[in-house]
Amino acid sequence: xxxxxxxxxxxxxxxxxxxxxxxxxxxxxxxxxxxxxxxxxxxxxxxxxxxxxxxxxxxxxxxxxxxxxxxxxxxxxxxxxxxxxxxxxxxxxxxxxxxxxxxxxxxxxxxxxxxxxxxxxxxxxxxxxxxxxxxxxxxxxxxxxxxxxxxxxxxxxxxxxxxxxxxxxxxxxxxxxxxxxxxxxxxxxxxxxxxxxxxxxxxxxxxxxxxxxxxxxxxxxxxxxxxxxxxxxxxxxxxxxxxxxxxxxxxxxxxxxxxxxxxxxxxxxxxxxxxxxxxxxxxxxxxxxxxxx
Length: 293
What we know:
The protein is α/β, with parallel strands linked by helices.
């Protein structure tokens, strides 16, 4: 911080990782009574049945605390659509695409005042949250491409990066936190890395290249980027082990909040997981929080 500069007020964010239906009224009560400035959902509140996703969304809508939701690859879709994306069956993806806008509108309606965000920026105090590409599945392609084109006019990874850079250009000297469903590329290619691939023999980097480009652009432009928050790649790895969930690089804190399941039992206690991110004047911190039910 420059000498003589007035310290900026800290901003407290509750980051809820991939819910996958593990959310209940105890969560609503806890967050409403908390000292957080906002609750951030990084996506995948649902699983494989749309009606169950809507049930979770309706519960989230009861939050009085300001909240923001970034749709994941399980949100606003039905199981055949998700399977088509996993198999990279472009014909099936396009054949089923007319259904998705309706599903998304149902999801948005169920969320009430909680914004389903994508390619947008939002203020929490004097911190700007820049929201990346929604519905990401990681890798080098745009998942649910027909919906992304229809809702946002984005047809390629290059156009996606350009849109995110334009959002950066709209900010001033405020602190910036990027929020997305999946994290950026560039943070490691091992299965245990924060967004490394754990379901292919060769592992690899499974982050989003458009998000990496946007973060790099913001730093290049002299913006105060303090954190990048996402989920998607579960902490528990296929084949055993745990991934790194928090990483500092060049003054930026990267957080993967996808502890799945987020509600679990330990020593006869039922615990609810989230990550507390505190945005300070010139850096951010993150700690896991386990709340007994």
